[in-house]
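Objective 1.3, modelling of assemblies. Example input:
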Amino acid sequence: MLSRFYLSLLLLSGLVFIAFITLATYRELTPEWKKYQAEYREMLIKNAKDEAAREKARRIKIEQQQIYLAGLKRVDRCMNCHIGVDNPLMADAKVPFKQHSGDYLKNHPPDKFGCTICHNGQGRATNKKEAHGKGRDTHWDFPILPFKYIQNSCAQCHDYETLRHKGGEMVVKGERLFREKGCKGCHKVNGIGGDLGKALDGIGSQPIAYFPMRHVVGEQTTYNWLKQHYLDPRAIVPDSEMRVFLTEEESDLLTTYILTFRTTEVPREYRRIRYVPERRVDGESLYKMYCIACHSTGKVSVYDEILKRTIPAIMNPAFLKNADDGTLRKIIKEGRKGTQMTAWKSTAAGLTDGEINKLIRYITRERPDEAAEPFGFAEFKTDPKHGKELYDVRCALCHGEKGKGGKGALGINLTNPVVQKELDPEFLARTVRDGRSGTPMPPFGEEGLGLSDQDIADIVSYVRTLAQKK
Amino acid sequence: MVRFTVKLNVVLFSSLLMMFFLTSAPAAQETGEAGEGVSEAVLKLGKRVYEVRCLVCHGEEGDGNSFVKVIRRSELSGRIIETYPRDFTVGVFRFRSTPTGCLPTTEDLIKIVDRGVPRSFMPPHEKSLSLEERKAVVEYIKTFSERWEEEEPCDPIEVKKPDWVGSEISVQKGKKVYKDMKCWECHGYEGKGDGPKADKLKDDWGKQIWPFNFVTGELKRGSSPENVYITFTTGLDGTGMPSYEDSLSEEDRWHLVSYTLKLMGLVK
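Predicted structure (tokens):
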């Protein structure tokens, strides 16, 4: 009885095994590319103009198509399905038989360039899903690029001067956005830039796992992450402090450009980069590149809900009147520790002294002719204790009791090393006396809120002890 | 030794008693006179407090045109909102417990001085000023507008929150009210303050104002259900926010409160 049971079990499992093998063999023998190639051959036969062409079409073998690119270290089998890609007769055919659009293949013949060098995707794969590399289960980090981002591949071999007038407008526009929206104010590229955000070198070659994909809507790809992150940084990275306000179109352009930051480099024989001398960068370009993301026009001070502090107006005439070039240089070079302001000196964010001078010249171009009236801080005998009494009533509401400014406070952080040590107390005293018209900082001097010079000197002396308190 | 401690106790107790009388005396005096005007001493104290704490924004004349003039705040979306200090000379106040068109009660004003106004940078003064000083400064503020002499504040509106506020059914009903009463025209379909009319609003002083974005931040008056309800009932005088006391039933207003709390993420 028992032996019969085992016998039937053996028989059954044998049948299942044979069925499985048969199915697997069948699937292997009829991959989707064979169907496409057969269809392609039918189309050629049907549309042949004369007997010779028909005969030629009949002789087309259905076989694995493969381009081996030794220089690029790639093997592309895309033409298994996209078989009409270099056939002019297929200009109006449907995908996947359609001819490649434009005349790109004239200068980029498939047998020398392949496909994935521009389009990404998994060249070795022989079915659509894996070749396009879409979806997490294909485990492919560089899925096929949508049309709108494709131009980032052009920048691997071509310089921006060429791309500007030869069909690379999108990546050129993206590069311009990158320069003018102040990305490098927070992100380092080649070691130059602020340190609030991540360095962008090689971001286009990063695996998908590098990006926190949790909140991305739709496919989890690098380009989707980048685009959605530009549209609403805090929807993708909840505690992000990124100040970026782009339209949908601009986000696509910037995504195209950012993907050009790759760690891989194509071999020299492929590259067509003309080494044009670097453009002379003026103060305005520097301001846009490094400062504009936070300071925007620099004319008015704004409390920012993203950075959770007030962003000072650095091109406000009242500030420039008081701050001489030396003061500005100190602030720019050392930054403001305890705030988002980076130290821009060459050993930190990487600006040269020459660049900083250019920036200062740009910032101070509207400085009023007459300098601020001197205060003569050194002549006063100061009393920090009296200063504290005044500070607690007059200053603490905006600058905070400990002078830290920050969340919900209109005043700036007074405890950073620049205010505490580097800056001349004379500058601080003049600021308290004259205020900053155009910002909420009122004049506390006799022409304003009526404090005497002695009071102001006391306050300044107290302010300069704030960092010592914990 | 014992006698010494008794003596000490007596001294301490009497000094405490004296302090009590000294501090409570002006308060008693003030409440006694609240009806027929305020004493010179209170106004003098109020003026002193005002000049140190308030003048910097609200100005010597109380017209809000002083050293600060305007405060700019950049929202998460990059929208810059300009806030102007309140002009006391007109006698129009947003945050009242009284019906629309009325003066606020003294308690309303003291409440604002106490807790400040979030997101507008009016700081809270509850800890930095004594109650006496806060009361005095409110009395002083009243001297800027003639309205305070001509009119009496109306009776405050009573608020009794029903138990079902915040329930799912109530939220759904509130959603319908939100749609029907066209709240979305200003506050946006998702309550983000980005409705079709959002950028065309001006306050009584001709300055541009923006409808509240429920998704970020706290209501200026505080985000409790009662405060939301009182806003719907009294309106915010001087702004585009009308009173719905006559156009919506009390029940509907509470439904709307539920939906607002939902938009703010305070109920599920």
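Residues 32 and 93 of chain B are 26 Å apart (CA to CA).
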